[in-house]
């Protein structure tokens, strides 16, 4: 290049307008951004596919779809369906599921229940249940098996036809989902004489416990109960109903290595009639709450219980918060046994949420 040409080139550069120069710089930056974005998008798609292959994407989605399975063990219908209807109506339908074990052939439809939440929720493989007999445990196992078919069911709550919720759904959901443990009532009763030595070694005497059958289980523990083929056969062969006394005190249970994963108390409150008349058929029978006894004060007194004392073991179970430094809270989320009048009083007092009395018997989902 001659000196003259070099001079002309240098002079041309000096005369490029600032606007054109800024435009060229901006264009270069934009080009780099487009190239980078294309590379990033390709990498993101590959990474997302990789995460899905390893299950991380499914786990992220699952965390937003955890449900409570409400499993009802009932004689035939659900007499308190109007209360439960309002409870479920005020809930997120993506956060719960319902299963019912009733007598064989009983169907939940418009002719047998006032709540569409219960329509066709009965098990097709139900069994004839005898009170205090192993068939009751069999029915519970069937309920847990059915609920386990839904992979989104994370918590499993066993309820009777006389149970009522003590709080709104949102409170119960938060309480249960924040707990790392299952709730299984379990205590030693030194006066109990129903242990049969023939149960050993599958059920050793030192593992014999008494407790309420109304349990709340995390999924892994529900699987253990549903698919157990060791403990239930032993109960089926050796556990018989005792006449007159202790008819309703609860099921004995075996803790096989899960002690650290269980809160040894029930979430369902019962008030026991502890009469001492040896031949009284109402001995240790749970008190039934009527309209008169289901006052706001009574319900609040139950809600205010923050610990359970087991005299036979000199043990206190504190309730509520979970983990170090957690504050105490209520022990019970449900209660039994309630009549229809008592349930109506809970409904009108807004225990399970607001309701419109004009649509009480006509509301459908």
Write the layout of secondary structure elements.
Elements: H1 3-14, H2 18-54, H3 56-62, E1 67-73, H4 81-89, E2 96-101, H5 134-148, E3 153-160, E4 164-165, H6 169-177, E5 182-183, E6 208-211, E7 216-218, H7 219-226, H8 231-238, E8 251-254, E9 262-263, E10 268-269, E11 272-273, E12 285-286, H9 296-303, E13 307-310, E14 315-318, E15 334-335, H10 340-348
Parallel strand pairs: 1-2, 1-3, 5-9, 10-15
Antiparallel strand pairs: 3-7, 4-15, 6-8, 11-12, 13-14
Structure description:
By secondary structure, the protein is α/β, with parallel strands linked by helices. The chain is 33% helix and 15% strand. It contains 10 helices and 15 strands. Strands 2-1-3-7 form a 4-stranded mixed beta sheet, with helices on both faces. A hairpin with a 4-residue loop joins strand 13 (307-310) and strand 14 (315-318). Helix 5 (134-148) crosses helix 7 (219-226). It is globular and about 60 Å long.
Structural class comes to alpha/beta
**Strand-residue proportion:** 5-15%
Strand order of the largest sheet: 2-1-3-7
Annotation field: number of helices: 10
What's the main sheet like?
4 strands, mixed
**Mean of pLDDT:** 76
Instruction: Tell me the total number of β-strands.
Output: 15
**Runs with pLDDT <50, length 5+?**
1-14, 30-63, 243-254, 274-283
End-to-end distance: 88 Å
Shape: globular
Element-by-element helix/strand order: HHHEHEHEEHEEEHHEEEEEHEEEH
Radius of gyration: 31 Å
Percent helix, as a range, is 25-40%
